[in-house]
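#dry-run=false #mode=assembly
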Amino acid sequence: MLNQNVESLRPLFKPQTVAVLGASTSPYKIGYLQIKALLDGKFDGEIFPIHPTADEIAGLPCYPSLSATPKQVDLVIFCVGYDQIKDSLADCAKHGVKSAIIFASGFSEAGEEGQQLQQELAQLAKQYGIRVVGPNCVGLVNTSNGLIGTFTPSILTVPQNGKKGVGYISQSGAFGILTYMAAAKHGVLFNYFVSTGNEMESSFEDFVEYMIHDDETNVISGYLEGAKYPDQLKVLAKQALKKKKPIILMKTGRSDAGSRAAASHTGSLAGSDKVYDGFFRQHGIIRAEDFDDIVAFSKIFNPEKLPTGKNTVIITSSGGRGINEADRCEGYGLNIMELSEQTKTAIREYLPSYASVTNPIDLTAAASVANPEYYLYPMRALVNDPDVDNIIFTEFPYMWHADTPELQEFLTLCRNSNKTVLVCPFPLDEQMTYPAATSLLIENGISVIPCDLNPIRALSKLVDYSERVRLENAIADEQEAVTTPIDLSDIVTPGQLLSEAQASEVLQRYGIPTPQRFIATSVEQAIDQARVIGFPVVMKIDSPDIPHKTEADAIRLNLQNEADVAIAYDTIVTNAKNYKPDATINGVAVIEMLQPGVELIIGAHNDPTFGPVIMAGLGGIFVEVFKDVAFKVAPLTRHDAIDLFEQLKGNAILNGARGKAAVDKEALIDVLLKVSTLMTEQKDLIQELDINPIIAYEKGVKTADSMIATKQAAPTTSTTQLIGG
Amino acid sequence: MLNQNVESLRPLFKPQTVAVLGASTSPYKIGYLQIKALLDGKFDGEIFPIHPTADEIAGLPCYPSLSATPKQVDLVIFCVGYDQIKDSLADCAKHGVKSAIIFASGFSEAGEEGQQLQQELAQLAKQYGIRVVGPNCVGLVNTSNGLIGTFTPSILTVPQNGKKGVGYISQSGAFGILTYMAAAKHGVLFNYFVSTGNEMESSFEDFVEYMIHDDETNVISGYLEGAKYPDQLKVLAKQALKKKKPIILMKTGRSDAGSRAAASHTGSLAGSDKVYDGFFRQHGIIRAEDFDDIVAFSKIFNPEKLPTGKNTVIITSSGGRGINEADRCEGYGLNIMELSEQTKTAIREYLPSYASVTNPIDLTAAASVANPEYYLYPMRALVNDPDVDNIIFTEFPYMWHADTPELQEFLTLCRNSNKTVLVCPFPLDEQMTYPAATSLLIENGISVIPCDLNPIRALSKLVDYSERVRLENAIADEQEAVTTPIDLSDIVTPGQLLSEAQASEVLQRYGIPTPQRFIATSVEQAIDQARVIGFPVVMKIDSPDIPHKTEADAIRLNLQNEADVAIAYDTIVTNAKNYKPDATINGVAVIEMLQPGVELIIGAHNDPTFGPVIMAGLGGIFVEVFKDVAFKVAPLTRHDAIDLFEQLKGNAILNGARGKAAVDKEALIDVLLKVSTLMTEQKDLIQELDINPIIAYEKGVKTADSMIATKQAAPTTSTTQLIGG
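#status=ok
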């Protein structure tokens, strides 16, 4: 089945004919630079400069208008100003143009008038099926067909060879161009570069989808400031995982956390960055720390040979470099494994006695000075060790040339093994490496990445990615259950902060275990209820007019027997009446007193980008001092729920650290999934939800306190409440 | 007063005459390459090749022996093998040679015989006052006088110009050479490079001292695997701080933590790396994460203009770059400050309305394309804002040349201000930056460091360093008090793990508050003692033969009254006797029952490198799950003790987080200082000490449990004990 988005974008990426609107005879104008760029890039289609009077520009014949071009136009590049865009686009529509690049700015980024115009343009483009990059962008490049659809002259000053197969999509024009150029300088020429600009008609996600379906693309990379269509991105990420096409995105704005006013703890902790982290992890999108991750990852990625695990061996001729890279590996979560005795013995057979066969394997300076064959020898043993996943060389003998038998044996060993082999030379390529061997290494599936490009970090991301791909194939797709939303209209009034009793009732309807609670309107009733619940109990006033129960001295904890309950009832009612004589009093709540256990926080909020987002963390100081919480976007799968806990530093405690028993994780997972269902079903009604704490026991869990704010409810000060209610 | 170490090292760094032993006529031998390196380096003294028969080598006349040289020889470079070293050194001694470089390996790193020979050589060198670099090293370089005292030919292939004043000392030859070359490639030519090798006669610390006293050195950098003389390094670090000569060291081996068997919690947490971290922080030594920190720090460091604080402003023409660098700043602890209304108003006066005057200040693409003057305008306001400490430009207008009036005004503003100004262009120097302006910027005290060299990390390290320099000048030198060690011989037997009671007694002698405790030998005595202490109390058996009191069921907690005490006494004695009928029973300990408070761990251990090391952390999960502990080397100053707590993530809790009162920090500091005194005085006796937990209250602290292992005491399994004991 043809994908409509992909098919309609093809003329943008692979046009046969390109018209340049606003072509200029002046070599300093965009309208000239653009034509020159297409020529210098050796664009493999036809170029039609549109100019009212000129005969030729840069050697190409000109045409006075779109209607005068000799062929149907696939792509029009707009080198005209803001005020001519509307008429020009209408002209394109009239002539059946299939796609357009619009550089001009002044639209949605520049105020109301611009926004208005952009809307009109978008409508026009959609009506006539014109796919548009921009406006307010630096354009689009396809290095395979020489389509340099940008006026930026510098883009052609960098090397135009190097590994292809990497698509790059950027929400920042300047950052995009710089990354494109830096990557090319480091030997990675992107096959596509798209500056998305205002995403008037085509979005970041649309281009991701194009590249997922594009046979020339192996790696989809990008610079993201904010996803416009996270639901679409989620679906695409899943498709990309299935196809083993990694999506690696740099996302900025890490430091903008949580300045929004929020009623809940969850809301205040959920800076957009943490939610993005959760979303990326959830859907197997790799997060690049910086542009170097994209370059190094592109170099190291090979869909045919994904790393088999974290176990890593380092081979070096310098003890110092070995230790340093080992530090880095462990810092990024790779495991500098202990070698088996069998493997050590096998290595020792070939190496001189002074070489160290512990990991890192130190071949000593002899290897780099006089005995390059030492680089080969350990490989004979390592490729046969099933526990070894990755092998890193800190340098490679510069004496090895194509016809060296040792190099040939080395290449054969690597080619036939499932190990990921990586060479990370010091960044002094000219002097210190093995130009003769580099291309042979790369051809044989060995990555060569100078250590200042952070190859170890890229390797660790690749290892995680590979794990994710395996997981994706291992677990069955969970169908999102179609549920009939539970009716909450009798409890929840939009625009309201729910009372504790109401919040508790909402949780209960979703099957989340809450403490037993009754409302007593007499001492006798309170005693009966306490007997049903079992002692000890907690009692507190139930009145919509007394939100601050502690201030009213209308709470009593740890009531051990009937006498305690009787006294408490009278005291609470008296105190409440004294506190607020005209308060409506529903009665006194009698509530189960919870036993101590491991306290957690489970929360959710309705994120402006992602919709319902679920948070989990350990309670108390874990959340308040260490911010040890993790987020995922609802609806959660079972695996998401498990992984939310596994991300926590405090997970050890759930598993039973400090000699204590493990808590009931299944019950916790169940609550997370129910909160996910609740938030998904009620996303139009509920803005924020905190269960803080939820207490986990060896068997079972119980919510101790909860808070729910409906949408449009004004944030209020958080209510600190006591266990038991 | 002349410094003997410095004076005697001078002929090594600044020889007038150099002899090359083992000179060779073969261009592939070290004995030839070394002479060629001196010639190519344009060594400004005389070179005497020593060769038994040759007349000349590389155009220089040869001499058959040291005795035949026409002048006294300052430095001899040994290009001879292992077996000739001893005779040659003896020959040097005979001829009054002042210094030597020995490349050969096979000494202390290669087994017993080599160790033996090295010791003899060291003795000889010391006796005749010959300063020696090596053996097992790659040599020494002084770029100021062209002394290329290394056979490594590649060292001259990198740029031989660039900022000088950076000394570099390396305990790894290969890493050292690579760093030297990478730095030169990035425009920092070290003035000195020393590969210390086996440090037979001259140590890493000796070279640090030389550079502290050397007028040509502004920054002392290095690669350290392990300090041989930490006491000397500590004294030198202080001198360097006073002179504002930063010492920046890369220290590897981060991941080698805590594999040693250890009796104490502290011992098992104190991987050497964490102790180095503490030592460096304590003494103002900057820790480089990688070689790039050394290069970037060297570029940014200016002793005349240290950063005034953390408040940082970013100026950019690309929103994306601005956000990205802001993320980095915050990640490294710099503060992306909010600009004052006054400053914003002043900036708005000059900039167009679409530019963003929030921080990062986004000048928009207009600045980089057509309006370079925008880069100047905000500076007019920022240099006058006393809250601004650092100003970072993500790029700089490439249109500005020396005669641009805007550039001239820019330079004047920077020169006359106390702000640290940093330009961090994307690493595409050739295409994207301002070659015409760069040297002018640098001359005017503005650093230009491409962003792939981690300039932001270097800036944050510089900010910390500046803070440390200010502190060093602000606090009076604390004299290390000369104390008479307290006699512990009646309690402590070497080779022993102390009983809880003994450990408690040791702490008490040093004035550390321990719970009240008595030994009762009758019920009546126990009741009397409990009355003195005050209820509730804890009771437990006191017997050298029953270390596992819980197993013996010989502990009772929370005894509320005399009746409880009476029953407990009898039960404990009965249970103990049943558990071990032949046990010697001293009696039953009656101990104050401590109230809950904030639990901390304070510990110490005798580090093989640093001697007594003190650790502090919050107790329980803080230490067990988050490893939230910090180390410093004893003896501690008061500032060290304060800083130990400030380093903790959990410090917020000590200061009264979660609505609770702050704990008595003064009392905690007092305990730390007392533990420091204890460990310093008893360092020959005590190996490890844990106070875990120590309980801190609003007023006062009290140790709840303690463990002391003497030196040579075999590590035993850790004893988990209860509060009150």
